[in-house]
Design a protein that fits this description.
10-stranded mixed β-sheet, alpha/beta, 4-stranded antiparallel β-sheet
């Protein structure tokens, strides 16, 4: 009996010693996490302009950070809203429900903006985000004491980055050119309290602004004025916008005290690296080059000032891309590359005529958008038509049309299992997506003559990295392919909190 007690005591002492050693040697928590999502950042452009970068921005991240060179999203199609939601929730649209910036509201059959809630008098907020975000979990873990802010040129990027429990989400108002927030966040008026709008952003002075290239090189020249009813939207896509994001971020860090104590705070930033006025890249190559050079300066300023203010070991930077790009209107026919146009509105009309001949007149396809058809389920119930039969006949009909590569139904996506189906299902949500998804051949246009929408099918992967820098993370180049849904659990592990509640992905390291 005595030996048994000695054995238990020895185990307790060894366990206490091991725990003490682990605590003594463990890495301290960063006081501030800065999550940076760069809209439309591409590795090919990032590398093409590398010789022109300074030492503080991209060059520092790429040389001193942990760089995952081959990143991707675990779904077939992304845009800014679905990508940012995936990064901050650690899961896919099938769970977090943000399938894009807009979708069709099944009750009204009208477009629904991802951050607008009709039940709350149109107040912008994360109402449609169905799960918790990294910022939400930081708030929960700190009993509400941590600061969580998000700043972006665009409303959807700011709100979806901030999540449900954040202290604030700030973006540029497309109508006034001023920083704004939402009544959803308790301190939506805090922008004016900083006096930042009086010091930055175009506002009423936009007519005096000129966007000219850095350095004023003769062989590298352009000049843009901002005027007309879309002047602020154009400014959002110029190379000038990113400096404002950095300025406001630094102002909030200093005036709100982010990173000033032992409780880890979160700052989510969105920068823009896409083409000016959403033009094809071939039409704005000089502007795109200047955007990357200015973005390099903005990120360099952000890193240098935050490290000086808080400490290099105390700040963790995580950088990635939205993994999407504006549609490229390449004229494939000019180069004899196979192409064509599939008209979604005509396909819907033909289907209604076809089913009308079989089952009687009716609007069997209620509406359509992009590559999706929305089925009139009530009509099918009234006519006692099986959904399975309807989907099968729809698929057989559409596959006979020129340009159609494949057709997927909601039942198929929810029931079948394969690598391709899984990736499509990841970007699908039953309440927000259509009942029929049409895949057209690569190089083909999918056009809606009613709305003027025109999408070119280009399923080729867009290369971009995931970069972790600071907080004593060793530099390394990692070529193993990784997905962006692993960012949130990686940060959660680094600051020792629970990952977002729908996240099942493994941390990056």
């Amino acid at each position: 009996m005595r030996n048994r007690y000695l054995y238990i005591t020895l185990l307790a002492v060894l366990g206490w010693h091991a725990e003490g050693s682990a605590q003594k040697g463990s890495r301290p928590l960063p006081r501030l996490v800065v999550n940076i999502t760069i809209d439309q950042l591409r590795s090919d452009f990032l590398e093409a302009y590398a010789p022109l970068y300074g030492s503080d921005g991209f060059r520092r991240l790429l040389e001193q950070g942990r760089v995952y060179e081959n990143a991707s999203y675990p779904l077939t199609q992304t845009d800014r809203a679905s990508a940012i939601s995936t990064v901050l929730t650690g899961t896919v649209p099938y769970y977090h429900s943000i399938v894009g910036q807009r979708w069709i509201n099944r009750e009204t059959l009208r477009p629904q903006y991802c951050t607008e809630d009709n039940r709350q008098n149109g107040i912008a907020g994360p109402h449609h985000l169905a799960v918790s975000t990294l910022g939400d979990e930081i708030k929960v873990a700190s009993d509400g004491q941590a600061f969580v802010y998000a700043i972006a040129p665009f409303a959807d990027a700011a709100i979806l980055s901030a999540g449900h429990a954040a202290d604030g989400a700030l973006w540029m108002d497309e109508q006034t050119g001023m920083w704004t927030s939402s009544q959803y966040y308790s301190n939506g008026e805090s922008v004016s309290s900083l006096g930042f709008n009086e010091l930055s952003l175009p506002g009423k002075s936009i007519r005096k602004l000129r966007w000219v290239p850095l350095g004023q090189e003769k062989i590298y020249d352009f000049r843009h004025l901002f005027k007309g009813h879309q002047k602020y939207q154009e400014y959002q896509t110029s190379g000038l916008i990113n400096a404002h994001v950095t300025d406001l971020a630094l102002a909030y860090v200093k005036q709100k005290g982010l990173g000033s104590d032992s409780i880890t705070d979160l700052l989510c930033l969105t920068y823009y690296a896409g083409p000016f006025k959403h033009q094809p890249v071939s039409e704005c190559q000089l502007e795109l080059k200047d955007t990357y050079l200015r973005l390099d300066q903005s990120i360099g300023t952000l890193i240098s000032q935050l490290e000086a203010h808080i400490g290099r070991r105390e700040v963790l930077f995580v950088v990635t891309s939205t993994g999407s790009c504006d549609p490229d209107h390449t004229d494939y026919a000019k180069y004899r590359i196979p192409t064509g146009t599939f008209y979604i509105n005509r396909a819907a009309g033909l289907l209604n005529m076809y089913f009308g001949a079989i089952w009687g007149n009716g609007r069997y396809i209620e509406t359509y958008t992009d590559h999706q058809l929305y089925v009139n389920r009530k009509l099918l119930e009234q006519k006692r038509i099986s959904l399975t039969d309807f989907y099968q006949q729809t698929r057989e009909f559409l596959l006979q049309m020129e340009g159609v590569k494949n057709v997927y139904s909601a039942l198929q996506l929810l029931g079948e299992h394969s690598s391709q189906i899984t990736k499509i299902r990841n970007g699908f949500h039953p309440q927000h997506n259509g009942d029929i998804l049409i895949e057209v051949n690569p190089g083909w246009h999918l056009q809606n003559e009613d709305t003027g929408e025109d999408h070119l099918s280009q399923p080729a992967a867009l290369p971009f990295p995931i970069i972790l820098y600071g907080a004593d993370i060793p530099s390394e180049q990692v070529k193993t392919p990784v997905t962006t849904d692993r960012i949130a659990p990686t940060i959660a592990r680094a600051i020792r909190i629970r990952a977002p509640n729908a996240c099942s992905s493994e941390p990056l390291y």
